[in-house]
Every structure is written in structure tokens, then in C-alpha cells.
Amino acid sequence: MSSKPAPSHIDWLILLPIAALLLFSVAFVYSASSSFADVKFGSSEQLFWNHAVRVLIGLGLMIGLSKVDYHIWDRFSTTIVLIAIGFLVLVLLMGTEIKGASRWVHLGPINFQPSELAKFAIVLHVSAILAANKVFVRDWRKSLLPVLGWTLPICGLIALQPNLSTASVVFLIVMTILFLADTDSKHLGMVIGVGAAVGIAYAFTAEYRVRRLLAFFGGDNADEAVTYQLNQALIAFGNGGITGVGPGQSRQRDWFLPESYGDFIFSIVGEEYGFLGVVLLIGAFTLIMWRGFAVARKAPDPFGRLLAGGITTTLAIYAFVNAGVTCGILPTTGLPMPFISYGGSSVFFSAIAVGVLLNISSQAGVYRAGRKLSSTSTTD
Amino acid sequence: MENDVPPQQPAYDAIRWKAGVLILFFAGAFLVVVGRLFWVQVVEAGHYRDLARKQYESKVELRAQRGKILDRKDRDVATMIRTTSFAADPTLIQQPALIAELLAGADGKAAAWYLDRIQSARNRFTWLARGISTALYPMLDTIRDRGLIRLTEPKRHFVYGPVAAQVVGTTDVDNNGLSGIELGYDSLLRGKSGFVVMQRDGRGRLRPSVNPEREAPRDGANIKLTLDIDMQRVAEQELDRGIRESGATSGTVVAIDPATGDVLAMASWPTFDPNRLDRATSDAIRIRAITDQYEPGSTMKAVTAAALLEERKIAPNDAVDGGNGTAVIFGAPIRDDHPVGQTTFSGAMEQSSNVVFAKSVSALDDRVYYKYVRDFGFGIPSGIDLPGEVRGRLKRPNEFDATTKTYMAFGYQLSATALQMVNAYAAIANGGVMMEPRIVQSVIAADGSILRENKPMRIRRVISEQTAKLLTDMLVGVVERGTGSEARIPGVRIAGKTGTAQQLVDGAYGTSSYTASFVGFYPAEAPRVAMIVMLDRPTTSIYGGSTAAPIFRRIVQKTMTMLALDDNTRTRIAASADADSVFVPDVRGLDPLTADTVLQRLGLRLADEHPVDVLIVKQRPEPGIRVERSTAVTTEVQTSRKPGDTTTVATPANRPNVVGMPLRRAITVIHASGYDVRIQGTGKVISQEWRGNVCILSAR
Fold first, then answer.
1. Which of A120, A128, B426, B677 is the most exposed place for a label (fewest CB within 10 A)?
2. What is the DSSP letter of B537?
3. Chain B contact probe: residue of A289, A337, A340, A360 with most B CBs at under 10 A
4. How many CB atoms lie within 10 A of CB A90?
5. Which residue has the higher pLDDT, B641 or B12?
């Protein structure tokens, strides 16, 4: 928009690992879903083709959006967040119930999870608010209050689905953005404390959440299905060992591990590609995370910095929580692994977010287009 | 400061170090995940591999094939067949009507029954029909319905149905032996099951693995019996016929080879089809020849004679006094059905004189007599390889009272099984040497090697060959000239003895329940078969000579070609079987329909037509006379009516003659003729006297 830094190209160290993850995810999903799809749809390739198409669209969106100046999002952030809130209300009124929770909305042929849209929208909008009020960021009435004014209703709507884990993660992401934005640490601490208390209190209002937590902490009334799923995930990792049982050789997908192609796909990767495979995958996320925050450091303006930080935080938290859940160091939640899990909403909104991040990177001069290039690229 | 943008705007420079904090935080978090994965995938991998293997692998039992049961000529008697069992999953079934219709055709229940069962089923696995041979009903294989569950199961098949059912035995639905050889040799027949490791998925579906761990099942061994299934079948047919003709409640036939102890036939009646075990009564499953003991009666006289002859207390031609059928010995009144006066010891055997045997046995010391009875196998299990054998009852000398030996001499105060009795006669046939009866010849492993061979086993010499020879001649005389004449086959020397024993009913010997038997061996000069026929409570005649002996004869006639006899003997037996002459049966006291059936079976016929509700009171020719086949028997009948009915005046013309009839039948005939009866004595009617409408019968 305004003071444009010297033009540079996108951060390839973000694009390449993500493109690789997306492409590999096609193979992962194919293997992990084949048994389920074979029985459910009569074709072991059904979910594979769905996913492959979505990955291609996602890659297209990502590359396309990397060319769109990220400042455009500043202008539309309020609209987007209002649309997201609209869908969240809609899903509560007329959503499709799956496993006791309404998380899906149907728009003609397209079904999607409004919480995924909301997650992106709030990161966008909070960054916009804080960037606009950068001078008054330490004044809680001008920063904290409007931010919470948008965040709390969204988290509340998501929690009502009920989807406490996504609501908590969204809250955490916003808190991280506030942290990056230099909010008064006393205020921030208070908000986080109150939020945690509310979250914990809410956790105990539903039996299934308590049983999931008990399952994690080894209680007697543990949810057997959750304990079973976690045990099966661990068996997948353990049976994979160091080098894995080989691509396409998973046995856990044969109806042992529920959600093997969705939230628990990480353990199928661990089974087929072993410890070496999951270390590479975690390595890819670490690389993305590091480069993402690097972009946040060097972005040309506060909006870019906060937005890059928020997007990177989102990806990192999702990757960490999902991996932590599948290997049993975090209580079971229903969060997908970005770029890897089967699921259109997750793929699309992650791709959109990364597209935005890539555009910021191209303006951050992370790869300053070199001294050689600077003379040739003045025409922008 | 309060309204305008400050000159040095922070521009979130703090983000530089804060982003660094986050990088470190997330890097740390990822490191924790990697550490945890290192623990699970590297350190603890073995533990999880074991868990994985445990849930992937499923040991599937490979059932061993149950061994076969064969007869002495290696014919399959009990084998395994593949059958299919059908169950319904009511949630998936699409063509219930078709399935019901086809199952009804194969399994035998009405189609509506299956339809109702399918439609009222709550369970997703509901049995419809079990153990159906789809080889017989290939239509069942054509049903394409996801809701019809098929399970192939091996099932025991008894090739000859009811033939030898009791001896061969039965199995339950899971092919475990329940009775007979199936039970006694269950562990050998069963074999040992193996297993194969299959791969399973989370839903429990199995699929074979590439190089599965496997242990092959070891099929069960085959059991070869000494039974000759042809002879067994004839014995059963003739026993069945004899029981129907005699009105007995049950019976048994045992035939053994005296030289080896091989059981050639062992028939029991009532019987059953082991393929339809659900229809069998427990009464029919018993092997009566070894599980039922009875007081043998006169057949015991051969054993008494053996002891007397061996101890040289008497010789066959010694003169004895039959006391005209009555005597009191040690205070015990003895009576004979066939009274004799002065005769020889052989003659007393031929006429089965209780008096003579009761008198003669007193020459033997209690212990000596006991030793012989015991040596002949009484009171001891025969040792046959069948479950359920009883030992019978034999008093020891110190348990004898004054009359014990006297009564034992003609077959009371002890009890024996049919097998024990026939084995005693087999010892006589075998020149005095008793063999252990055997039913299993050999046990053959599935690969054909012989696991066990039961060699003929000599138990002991009981009497000398000389005594056996003398005794055989006496027993031949019984058939040639005496009470066993119904067993006679012209040209073949058959040695045998009849037995008619009163049964103890409620602690007293009554006149209504008898055990009729005939036991003997043939050909007398070189015996090949010793056989007993035993009938429990015959009603048309109580005598072993008239009920059991004909069964014996017919079995001999029909099985002679199966035996390794010399050609001459075989020809003579064959000639007798085809002979044109038969003995006229006693049809008095029967209704015309029954009488006609009896006569037709012998090749005779009823000359007159009678209404149904009458009884035959007179017949010509007289019973027991040999006539040509197809002779018509003329009869006179009386309308059955109550005694004392005065609507018809009894005239001497329609007074039936019942002399010579068994008492019970005589009473029936006289009642049928409308007269009252007074009786004196028991047994056969020896005279009758009329006083108005009352007939006074004297019987002995």
C-alpha cells in the first residue's frame, strides 16, 4: 500500500516444505483411507481422489494469493470476520450433527467447517485492530477491549458447537498475537488466567470432555473409545519403529485406528515411515515455523508483522497439538494436522493463510532480492 | 503525548525478540514431541510390536477329520461328510420366501416355519437349518442373498443307518462320541486339531497371510471292527421280524466266531437311526447284549452238563429219572414243561428236564460247581471293548443257600448278559477253550499304518476237548429231537439249547413275564458261529423253542453264504432256505388281519375271508405241522364278545379246543368265544373241561 520495501520474492523455505507436505499428504491419505473408503464407498480410492483435488486447488489458492498484496486483507478484515460469525451462528441453527457436535455447514455442494474460516478471520481482524491502534496498544481500552470484543463471541460460538479444543486454540492464538503486539503483560496475564479458568470450568460441563481428560490422565472412568484410539495410535508408532513398515503397508488403517486418515493420520505416517519419517515431518513444520516468525520479524509494517506471526502461530499450534495428541502427550482433541489430514476446510484455509504469509514474506525482504536484483525491480 | 502520534513510534520492534521467544518455545515443543516419539518408536518399539502382532494375528483352528469306523471287510460304517448349516441375518435378507421354500425341501420343516423364524428373528445370527448335505440339495447353493449365512461343517454320517447303531454308537453335533465305539474310541477317532495363523483387521475379518505359521491337524485313526455288516443287517432284520411275531418288548442277537472271539453281529431291538439322533429314545441306544442281565433259564443246563461230564459224575447215556415232571429237591418244588419219566441224561437235555438237572447237580460240590460256572465267564465282565458292560450276578459258594445250586443248575439265582451266555457256548464250540470276545480288530492311523492290532486272546481252557465233544453231541440232539427243533435245518448239524425263564417281577416269579432264548453254534463238527437270540417278554408264545429258535434258524439260513463254510454245508443250508416246506404257525387267538400277515411272511395264506372284529379260534392244518409253501390255512372265527353275554347260546359246536396252547392265549381264545374261564396251574393247557358256559383249563 504505502511505503513498499525493496521488492523481493517469496520465501521458498516456506513454500517448498508446505508444497512437499501437501503432495505427500496425498500419499498419506490414500494409504490411510483405503480400507475405510473401500468398505464405505466401495472404492479404496474415493477419499484419495477427493483429497488430491483439494490439494491441487489448495496449491493453486496458495500460489495465487501469494501474488495478492496482503494489505488488501486489512480493508476486508471486518467483513470477513462478520461473515465468519454469520456462519458460526448458522451452523448452530442448522448444522449437520456428526458425533454429537454441529461443526459442518452445507452450501449447496460445498460443506465446510465455519470454525476453520473463523480461525483465519480472527487472526486477520485482530492483527488489523492492533496494527491500527499500534500507538495505544498499551491502553487496554483501545487494544485489549476491542480484540476481546471480537474474540470472545467467536470462541463462545465455537465452544457451543461444542468444540472446546478449537475454541481454546483460537483463544491461545489471539493471546499469542497480543503477546507479539506488546500488550501490557499484566493485562495479558489476567486475560489468559481468566480465559484458562473459564475454559477449565467449561471443560467439566460435558461428560465426554471429562472422560477424555480422564483417559489422558489415566482415570478409572476413562472413555474407552478414546483410550482405545490412543492405544491404537501408539501401536502404529511403535510398530513402525525406526524405519517404518513401508509406504502403503499400514495395518492400523485396517479398522484398528479410528480416524486414521483424519486427526490421527500422523500415527499412520509414523507407522509407514517410522521415526525417521516423523522426524522429517516435524522438521518440516519446524522449518516453516522458524521461517514464518522470521517473516513476522521483518515484515514492513505492524499489520504484516502481526498477521505473519498469527498465521505462523496458528500452523505451529495446530501441528504441535495434533502431534502431541496422537503420541499421547496431550489430551485427545479433534484438531487436524495442517496440510496432512484429510479434510477440505482445513486444506483450503491453511492454504489461504500460507498464501497470505508468502505474500508478506515477499515484502519482508527475507530474501532481499539481492543487490543484483534491486536495480532491475524498480518498476513495481 | 496525549493526542498525537509519538515521534519515535515503536512499530512493534519488540516483535523481534518476542518472535524469537516463540521460535524457541515451538522448537522446544516439537522437540518434546520428537522425544516422545523416540521413546515410543525406538525405545519401546518391541512392546508395541508385540501388541500389534497380538491384534493382527488370529490363530484359527484346523479341525482334524474324525476317523472312520469300518467293518471286518473294510466297508465304511461311519464316515465324515461335508454339510452346510444355514443361518439368517434378518437385517440383510432379501428373499425370505425363496429361502424358506428351498430349505423346506431339504430340511423337512414347513416353509412357513422358516419364514416365521426369519421374520421374527431379533438376532443377527439366527440358525435356520443345520447339517444339510448340499451335495443332495444343490439348489441351496444357488441362493444369492447377503442375509443367508452359510457355514460348512463336517458331520458324522452313518452309512448303514440303523444297522449296528448301538455298537457303532453316536456322536453329538460337534462330533464328540456319545455312545458305543464312538465313545469308547473317541480319543483315537478324534485326532488332534492343528492351527494356522491368519491376519485379521480391526473388524475381525480374517485373511490368509503370506507365509503363515501353521501346524497341520492330525486326522483321527480308523477303527476296524470285527462286525460283518451284512450279517449284522440280517440279524437285525430277523430279530425285528421275530419280535413282531412274538410280541416281545425287546431283544438281542449276538453272533461270535468261537475260534477267535470276533463279534460278527450284535443286534439290539428297539433300535434307531444314528443319523437322526433326535428321534432316538434312550431305550434304543443301549447295547442290550452287554448292558442287560437276565436269568438265563434252561440255556444254563449246558454249563451244568459240562461240569457234570468233566467231573465224570454222569455220562450222556446214563439213565436218569425225570419224575414225570415234578420233584421236590431240598424242599424246592421243581416242575417241567415237558415232563419226562425214565430217560438218559441226553434225553433229559433234549426235553430240558429241570428235575433231572436239579437232581444231578447235587453230585457236585458247591465250590466245584461254582468254579465251572465262573470259568465259563459268568459273574465276570467278558472284557469286550465296549463301554457299559455289566458283569452279571453270580453268588459265591459261601453265599449259597440250600436251594441255590439246585436252581442254578437250570438257570435261576444267577444273571448273565447275552454276550456272557453266547461266549460260554462258544467255549464249548471251540473245544473247551474260551476266547475273549473282541469287537475291534485293529486301529489304523490316517496314513494307513496300523496303530494297534487286537489279536485273538485265549482266556482259559474250561473243559476238555473230550467233554466239549460229548456236550456238542447232546446239544445237537436238542435241535434234532428236542425242544430246539424249530432251529433245525435239514442236513446241517446245529448244536443249541432253548431257554424259557420266568422273570422276577416285584420279587416273585410270575407267569406273565418270560425271557425266551435260543443259543447254539454251527456247524457242529467244525463250528464257525456261536449265536444267541434273546427275547424279552414274548406274548404269542413264551417258549424259546418257538420264538427264539426260528429267528436263529432264519439268520443261519440267510447268512450262510457269508461264512467260510465248506461247500457241502453251504449247499445244504441253501437248500433248506429254499425248501418248499414250512412249519404252520399258530394263528389261533389272532385277528384275521394279523394272522394273514404272519402266514404270508411264511409263504402261506389264509383260506377264508373274515370280518375284522373277530378272533381265530380254530385252524387247519394244526400248528407245527410242516406243509408246502402257498398252502391255504382254513380257520374258524368267533366274534369277540364279553364273557357272560347271553344273547347267543353257547353250543358244543363252537366251543374252541385250546389244549396245547399257552395259557394266556387259550384264555384269550375262550373269552373271544364268549365263555368264562377258570384256570388251574400255569404254562401250557393240558386239558379242558366244560361246565355250562365256563371252561376249566388245567395247565402245566
1. B677
2. S
3. A289
4. 15
5. B12
Measured between beta carbons, which residues in chain A are less than 8 angstroms from residue B47? 238
Phi first, then psi, for residue A288 (nearest 5°) are: -60, -45
Query: At B290, which amino acid appears?
Result: I
Q: Are residues B609 and B694 in the same domain?
A: yes
CA distances to A172, A206, A352, B32, B60 from A321, rounded to whole Å, are: 12, 21, 21, 12, 41
B11 — pLDDT class (breaks 50, 70, 90):
low
Residues B39 and B76 grouped into a single domain: no
User: What is the overall mean pLDDT for chain B?
Assistant: 84
Check: CB of residue B475 under 8 Å from CB of residue B273.
no
User: Poorest-confidence range of A98-107, B398-407, B641-650, B678-687?
Assistant: B641-650
| Cα end-to-end distance, chain B, whole Å | 149
Partner-chain residue, chosen from B14, B41, B202, that has the shortest CB–CB distance to A237: B41
CB B84 within 8 A of CB B109: no
Question: In terms of pTM, does the model score above 0.80?
Answer: no
Question: Which chain A residues are within 8 Å of B33, Cβ to Cβ?
Answer: 282, 320, 323-324, 327, 329
Mutation target vs A (from B33, B198, B200; most A CBs, 10 A cutoff): B33
Same domain, B113 and B191: yes
**B337 and B369 both lie in a single domain:** yes
Gap between the Cα atoms of B669 and B655, Å rounded: 10
Region A245-254: mean pLDDT is: 92
For residue B98, what are the domain limits?
A: 61-225
Place of cell 500500500: A1
- CB contacts, 8 Å: A302 with chain B: 11-12
Count of pairs with CB atoms under 8 A, one residue in A, one in B: 140
Query: Exposed, middle or buried: residue B7 (CB in 10 Å: 0-12, 13-18, 19+)?
Result: exposed
DSSP code, position B609: -
Instruction: Compute, in degrees rounded to 10, the torsion defined by CA atoms A240, A241, A247, A248.
Output: -20
Listed residues B576, B594, B614: the one ending a domain: B576
17-46 in chain B: CB under 8 A from chain A: 18-20, 22-23, 26-27, 29-30, 32-34, 36-38, 40-42, 44-45
The three three-digit cell numbers of residue B274, written as one number = 444314528
Distance from CA of B21 to the nearest CA of A (A): 10
What is the reported pLDDT for A308? Answer: 95
Query: Within this chain, do residues B571 and B613 fall inside the same structural domain, yes or no?
Result: no
Q: Report the run of H or E that residue B474 belongs to, with start and end.
A: helix B465-481
Q: Give chain B's domain count.
A: 4
Residue pair B412/B400 in contact (Cβ under 8 Å)? The answer is: no
Which residues of B are less than 8 Å from A316 in CB distance? 22, 26, 29
Question: Residue type at B179?
Answer: S
